[in-house]
Structures are given as structure tokens and as C-alpha cells.
Automatic annotation (TrEMBL):
InterPro entries: DegT/StrS_aminotransferase, PyrdxlP-dep_Trfase, PyrdxlP-dep_Trfase_major, PyrdxlP-dep_Trfase_small. It comes from Pseudofulvibacter geojedonensis. One of its GO terms (molecular function) is transaminase activity. Gene3D superfamilies: Aspartate Aminotransferase, domain 1, Type I PLP-dependent aspartate aminotransferase-like (Major domain). This is DegT/DnrJ/EryC1/StrS family aminotransferase. Belongs to the DegT/DnrJ/EryC1 family. PANTHER family: 3-OXO-GLUCOSE-6-PHOSPHATE:GLUTAMATE AMINOTRANSFERASE (PTHR30244:SF36), TRANSAMINASE (PTHR30244). SUPFAM superfamilies: PLP-dependent transferases (SSF53383). It comes from the Bacteria.
Amino acid sequence: MIPFLDVKKINSRFEKDYSEALKSFLNSGQFILGDKLEQFEKEFADFCGTKFCLGVGNGLDALTLILKAYIVLGKLKEGDEVLVQANTYIASILAIKQVNLVPILVEPCTETYNISISDFKSKIGKKTKAVLPVHLYGQLSDMEQVNRIAQDYNLLVIEDAAQAHGSSDKYGVRAGNLSNAAAFSFYPTKNLGALGDGGAITTNDYDLYTVASKLRNYGGNIKYKYEHIGVNSRLDEIQAAFLSIKLPYLQADNEKRKIIAKKYLDGIKNSKIQLPKNDNSHVFYAFVIRCVERDNLQQFLFENGVQTAIHYPIPPHKQKALEELNILKLPVSETLHNQVLSLPISPVQSMGVTQKIINIINQF
Ligand SMILES: Cc1ncc(COP(=O)(O)O)c(C=O)c1O
């Protein structure tokens, strides 16, 4: 069976360096909020081109802490509306809910699957105070338009960059540096994945950085002195050390993903299948095709030895957890949820395997 994603193989490339990092970590006796986190934060800020980076427990917390920090800073208040695309992973919406802001779901664009600029504009109301574009599947949202409209309506812009490490716009500006603040996830399957949970906030906003750095540590940076109602959400030293080992390889890994994507784009010739739009920003966290007979196609691939995934099978507004959103009608998003299928893609996938997958798809 061709696996959807071989996380073990991705990480075995770094086994020797991980072992050395583990030894040095044990010797240091510093397990939380130490030098290794500080070093990774500096490296990741440099990579994204931002002034600041803050390592946190996971991507969901990164989003939640940004929103919470803006509440502390008085730039948002409970009940304010945050626009977010409807076909995102549920975490983007949970973050908004967790700090008592109101998620307003925006339809995705039918070509890029990222936020529809026209629907975004049409849903801005008196209570709208922020927009949360998600760089879904590794492709940048149209940040030029998002930022222009946000400026016109005085909205905060928060990138959900959980799937887009290293993607950059036509000016070379990278995800994480295209808004007021951005959230990253280092969940093991991500383009930059830790060996457990992890996340980061990147920003050029010193005030946001300062407040969020307190919020991730119970509400204060000085031991036993607390200024805010914080949480415990720090990126572990050992995960920071592992991420520092992997970061220098991220862009080469993204290039390998792009080469596989190009092979899929050139090789898949099946009138039942719609291929993704290939713009230069795409770092192909997922290679997502569309097919009206998606479930049959998935079964066909499985029977022929190819494991696939669906990002995501149930739209957030149809989830029981988000009952108040169940009444929404979002036809574009709903159609996409019924049709999308993610093919195997990773920096350790061979061209031979990719060709094999193409041949099977072309027989469907
Ligand atoms: C778009 C998006 N946002 C947020 C998250 C949440 O990240 P984490 O799993 O690290 O909490 C994810 C993770 O899968 C994601 O894909």
C-alpha cells in the first residue's frame, strides 16, 4: 500500500541529529522556556521575515492566543465578528469561539479553495473587526486583496498559516509576514513538523508579541507575577531543538513537493478529475483534486494500493460542536467537501511512486 504520508520516513532522515539534540537537551537540564526555544524562535522569525516569533503548544493555541492578546490590547472585544473561510479545518473556528468572538463563515473561491474576496467583502458588517484568511493546502490566500479591503474597513488580519510554512507571494514575502499576526502549526504531518504538538505566532507587532508571550505562560513573564488570565502553552525545548534541525531543509522539502505536484499536474489526464490551480506560492501541504464521484475514486485508489485523505469530509458548519452554525447554507463549501480528495505527497515520495499513482488515476 502506498501510504498517504510516511511521517516515519520523513523523520528518519534526521535520526542522527535528533539523537545528538536529545543528548544535549538532557545534559542542559533546561526543559521549558530555555535557550533552544529562544534559538528556534529567532530562526523561525528570520525565516518568515518577521521581527518576532513565539513558540506555543500547538496551532490552535497560536490562533487563540493572538485573538486573546488583541482582546487584552483592546483591539477586539467579546462579541466582535471575525470573518473566516467556511472550508477551513475546524481549529480556525474553534479559536474564534474560545475567546467569545463570533465566527462569520465566508465561502471559498472555487479555483483556489481559499477565501472568496467577493464573499468576504459582502459579509463585512458593523461588528466585523477581523478577518482570518487560511492558506489552505499550502497556497497563499489573495493577501493583497485581503489586506487592501481590511485597511478600507479597519479590520485586523490574522493569517492561519498552519499549512503554509515557506510559501511566498510574488514579491517573495512569506506566509506569516503578510498580516498583523500569523499562526503556525508544527503538528507532525505539516511541512515543518515536530515530533509531537507544537505551534508558533509570528508578527511584527511588538505589543501583540509582548502580551501573547505573557498569555502563553499563565499571564506573566516574571515568575509568580501575573498580569492577565493566561494559559500554559509553550513550545517544548526538545521540540524546538528538533525543529531547528529541520528548518534548514524546509525549502528544499517544499521544492520536492512542488516537483511531485508538477508531475501530477502534467500526468493526470482524466476528464472526471479537476486539478488544483498551480500558482507559485503553493507549497503543497496537500495535493487536492476534485471529483464528483469522489468516494468511488477513493475506493478505487484504495483497492489499487493507494491511500488518500479528505481535507475535510464534514464542513465545520455541519459539525455538532458548532450547532448554532448548522442552519447556514454555504453551497460552494458544501460542494467542495463532497468532492475534494488529497493524493499522497511528501518530500520522501519517489517519482516512481508518483507515476504509479498517476497511472491508476488515469484508469478510473
Ligand atoms: C488550517 C489549520 N489551522 C489550525 C490548525 C491547528 O493546528 P494544531 O493541530 O497544531 O493545533 C491546523 C492543524 O491541523 C490546520 O490545518
